[in-house]
Write a structure and sequence with these properties.
alpha+beta, elongated, 43% helix, 3-stranded antiparallel β-sheet, 275 residues
Amino acid sequence: MGRNRNSGLRKRGGIWHIDKQVLGHRIHQSTGTSDLKTAELILARRVEEIRQASVFGIRPVRIFREAATRFLEENTHLTTLRTYAFHLKELDPYIGLLPLYQVHMGTLQAYVDKRKKEGKKNKTVNGALATVRRVLNLSARLWRDEHGLTWLESAPLIQLLPLHDARRPYPLSWEEQHRLFKALPDHLSRMCLFKVNTGCRDGEVCSLQWDWEIDVPELGTSVFLIPGAKVKNREDRLVVLNRVAKSVIDGVRGQHPQRIVPGASAGITAPTDNR
């Protein structure tokens, strides 16, 4: 049986929940524990945080995991969301439970060292560091609580690693291209052949639909107009098909009523871990 409601704690489903009015602010949340003493400590901390913020303008302490969760919830529209989620999941054991003000290059060093020891390139590590930097900047500049206080007083400088170990890009020779396509399964080989002849990104190819095809009979070919929602810069993209790209499209025509690449993720590709 739960405690008296006036105490601010009530037990539901074996877990203590807070439901209390403090200085005009409603606290309505789960404590995440079935232990009464622990729940009382959590309630006391929340009450003190509200008092400190309301009376003295002292911002409540929030952990990085809380900020990371808000970032993901607010950016479900991003085509890069899966990559952000991948980075934040990797970082959570290192900084997830740290207060926001304790997240800086010093506390991130253990993560950096581990990834470097695993042989990851600096560009791969930088992807995660850039995600942390974005979350901290939002916490310091945009997100505010019910008292008008930002989640973080100021964001620390998160320095990216130099890219001195990056592989130098180079165009594939015709022989290398032939060997690559030959080593891939048929459906991936077709996708790669289409990509190298159009310059499309993975997500654009995976989301390609027949409804976006526009026939150009004067040129004996067709084009695709990809909606901005499926393009990284959010602008509609016109994809012109040369002879090779057109042959790839014609080779899968009629296999699926809607999608060019059946079963592919719509505009979201899994982050690679060997960049």
